[in-house]
Each structure stands twice: as C-alpha cells, then as structure tokens.
Amino acid sequence: QLQLVESGGGLVQPGGSLRLSCAAASGFTSDYYHIGWFRQAPGKERERVSCISSSGRSINYADSVKGRFTISRDNAKNTVYLQMNSLKPEDTAVYYCAARPYRNGYFCPTQYEYSYWGQGTQVTVSS
Questions:
Q1: Confidence band (pLDDT; 50, 70, 90) for 27?
Q2: What separation in angstroms does the CA of 60 have from each of 12, 56, 63, 71?
Q3: Are the C-beta atoms of 9 and 20 separated by less than 8 Å?
Q4: Is 90 helix (H, G, I), strand (E, B) or coil?
Q5: What pLDDT score does 22 carry?
Q6: Residues 6 or more apart from 113 whose CB is under 8 A from it?
Q7: Among 36, 50, 44, residue whose Cα is nearest residue 102
Q8: pLDDT at 18
Q9: Which long-range contacts (CB under 8 A, 24 or more apart) does 119-122 make?
Q10: Alpha-carbon distance 25 to 39, whole Å?
Q11: What is the DSSP letter of 19?
C-alpha cells in the first residue's frame, strides 16, 4: 500500500511563496507513478492543480496557476514538489497529492483515476 505524505503548507501573505512536498512513506518505486496535485477550498469541489508523469518529462498545469506554480520531482528522493509563487488569497485550500501507476495510462487524468492520496496540507494566503 503506497502512502503519501504532504508537507510545506502554512500561512503566507499575498504575493508570497511556499513549496509543498509529497513524499512516499513506504512501498514506493520512484519512477512507477504519475503524480497529481489537487486542492479543495471550503465549499468548493476538489480541483486539479498540476500533474507530472512518472519520468518527469510531461507536465500539466491548471490555467489558474500557470506561470506561478512549478511542479517537479526527484525520483532519487521519492519526492514530488509544488513550488508556489505569487500566491493569491484564492489559492487558499487544502492541497493533496495523489499517485497513479504509470501503466494505467494517461499521466494527468481526473481525480477519480488516482489510486493513492495523501492526507492534505493546508495553505492559507491572507494578509
């Protein structure tokens, strides 16, 4: 059973930066999984923020974060990162990472096609 652990959330002022990490706690073969970052704000549906293929060669961003967020992975460390710059109050949400085995196909599907989820980390952007 793959276990994912997110970290790096917190309170930041508008315009600030945070870097989220998604680390595999156990059972992780570093380049076996596509990884997605999702977020859910209070009263809203969960939305996909960004995703990266198992190799790291394919990347996708939601329009709302394009140019501000950067996803990356270090397979040697079994960790995927989400660098978030120029944060806005509307970025406030619980952020989740999720994993999908690469052999299952497309690297950036809907949330319903991810097999494993972390517990989430809160990001609050406020002055």
A1: low
A2: 25, 11, 9, 9
A3: yes
A4: helix
A5: 96
A6: 100, 104, 106
A7: 36
A8: 98
A9: 119/5, 119/6, 120/6, 120/40, 120/94, 120/95, 120/96, 121/6, 121/7, 121/8, 121/9, 121/20, 121/94, 121/95, 122/9, 122/10, 122/93, 122/94, 122/95
A10: 21
A11: E
Read off φ and ψ for residue 111, nearest 5 degrees. -60, -25
User: Which residues are paired to 59 by β-bridges?
Assistant: 52
Of the candidates 5, 122, 100, the one whose C-alpha atom is nearest the C-alpha of residue 53 is: 100
pLDDT value for 76:
86
**pLDDT at position 28 over 90:** no
pLDDT at 26: 65
Q: What is the pLDDT of residue 2?
A: 85
99 — phi, psi (to 5°)? -125, 145
- Closest by CA position to 57, among listed 104, 108, 96: 108
**DSSP one-letter code for 54:** T
